[in-house]
Amino acid sequence: MEIALAASAVVLLAVLVTGWLLLRGARERIADCERREQRDAEREARLDQEQRRLHQQAVEAAQAQAVLARRREELRAEQTLAETERRVELERVAGMSAATARAELVRGIEEQARRDAVRSAREIEARAQAEAETRAREIVATAVQRVAVEQTAETVVSVVRLPADEMKGRIIGREGRNIRAFEAVTGVNLVIDETPEQVVLSCFDPVRREAGRLTLESLISDGRIHPQRIEEIHGRSLVEVEQICARAGEDALAEVGISDMHPELARILGRLRFRTSYGQNVLGHLLESAHIAGVMAAELRADAALVRRCTLLHDIGKGLTHETEGSHALIGAELARRYGESEEVVHAIAAHHNEVLPQTLGGGADPGGRRLLRRPPGGPPGGGGGVRAPVGAVGGDRRGAPGGAQGFRDAVRPRGAGDGAAGGRGRPPAQMIARDVAKQVEEELTYPGQIRITVIRESRATEFAR
Predict the structure, then answer these.
(1) Where are the domains of the chain?
(2) In 28, 187, 190, 425, which residue has its Cα 20 to 30 A from 441's Cα atom?
(3) How far is Cα 334 from Cα 341, in angstroms, rounded to an integer?
(4) Nearest 5°: phi and psi at 203?
(5) Are the beta carbons of 354 and 406 closer than 8 angstroms?
(6) What are the two backbone dihedrals, phi and then psi, of residue 151, each rounded to the nearest 5 degrees?
(7) How far apart are CA 218 and CA 229, in angstroms?
(8) Count of Cβ atoms closer than 10 Å to residue 381 Cβ
(9) CA of 102: how far to CAs of 108, 109, 130, in Å?
(10) pLDDT tens digit sequence for 154-212
(11) Which residues is 412 bridged to in the sheet?
């Protein structure tokens, strides 16, 4: 019994201790919560105080900004008033309005800019021209140095050597029968003088003269000289000359690098082997010119093959000038057209002496020929191409007058402009007019080479004596 009571007492004591411990923990947690609530309340109080302070600062900043805005408006009004008073005073002193002064200032700046532009343009043009001339000399010098051609001076007569002076009598024949037959068959004049052991053949046609030379040399070598033999030998000589011409033409084409030319055109080209002009063999001149032109075309990034072809054929008409009347340029052009050459080649042949207006790179023997104006498709006749000087740039009413096939003219009647020096108020300098016209031509026309623009000013004054 006592043991049971003791155990109960122990259990009750344990319960009491446990309850006390739990109560103590609860009280501590309650105290901790109270402390947290107090801290939160203090934090909220501080936040409210900071918010009120920030609000007060925002109000003060807004008031300061309003004050600054009012001050800014006051300063702007004072500045406007000062500028107005200053402008009024300047207008009173200068005797002109602000708009007039501004226009004068703008006009002065524009005129100064125009003068500077003209000066710069002249310097650029002079420098470009000098560089172009230097480059052109280099190209020509390079082309000439890279081409080496033999030069031979030929005459218009042929000399035939004789084995002995008694051969002259055999050539003359009984009562001059042989020499008359020779001249009648060959068409070549045979000159027999006192020069020992030689006779001279003279004829305006070099091919015919060459056939006569071969005929006479064959007769002398054969020893039988009579009219029938002369006709027989001359027939064979003609065939031999034609073969020589054909071979010379083929060799010329091979040397220049052309393989697609009509055989008849190549044969006529070969006939120039016997033709001379100004002391130079014509075929040699054509080969030399073709090589030089090809080198120059390559330097200029042009079609070298086409330029060589045009140059090789430019004197082809000289092969027929003894048979056809007219200019060798026009004869050669018609000949080239007949045998299927392109229009570019035909034009180059026809235009190389300016008998036809040059319009292509190969169409002209002199550089000035390519500087002429070419009217674009659809333009009015007369070569002007519809281009006129800009009226606004000149400051007047225009009286257009189309020029010839080599250019255009444009007359301008100034309006509202006093005499004054060129470049005065309302009258731009002639250089600027030329520049404006050149710019319009560049924008509206298509043409080879370059176009020269020339501006001429004229002043007239009229008075009456009463």
Answers:
(1) 157-247, 279-371, 372-460
(2) 425
(3) 10
(4) -165, 145
(5) no
(6) -110, 125
(7) 10
(8) 9
(9) 10, 11, 42
(10) 456 788 888 888 888 888 888 888 889 999 999 888 888 888 888 888 888 888 888 88
(11) 398
